[in-house]
Specification:
CATH class: Mainly Beta
Structural class: alpha+beta
Mean pLDDT: 82
Order of helices and strands: HEEEHEEHHEH
Shape: globular
Oligomer: single chain
Distance between the termini: 31 Å
Low-confidence stretches: 1-23, 167-171
CATH superfamily: Electron Transport, Fmn-binding Protein, Chain A
Helix content: 25-40%
Number of domains: 1
Amino acid sequence: MQSAGGVGRKRKLVLGDGMADGRKFSRAERIGNLVAKVLVSSGVGPKRMHLLTVQGRKTGRPHTTPLTVVETDGQRWLVAPYGGVAWAKNVGASGSAKLRRGRVMEQVKVEPVDAHESALVLKAYIHIEPITRSAFEVGPDASLEEFEAIAPNHPVFRILPVRPADSVASE
């Protein structure tokens, strides 16, 4: 589930041509995100669910949203199934975030990846998060080439751990 950052705010899907849709998150989606935040902050729910906190690129205030961390080939990834939503823009601008599940918090670096690298991650994501399938232009059985073609519409970020020296330098 993804949060648009507040009740009634519009979710914008950034398409490859720069166009955006103006759909709003439904009441059910907003309630689902709220429930997910409470559960994940308590350490309840699927192990893949985390709270992502990232500094707003405009306000500088921290924003938190529940999301899925995808694990493939020993690496971890963040996926924005609804396109260029606020958290994805903020993560892209800052390059860092905090991931939290229960009492465990981790400072991480994030970096966007290209369409080719995104394809495998998107395919894995659509299998583990069926609730977001309607946001994708292809189905779970689509080829990697088809996932690569839609990758510009669904940003993917590689999660990198912050070494102790990195965190001291950024403070």
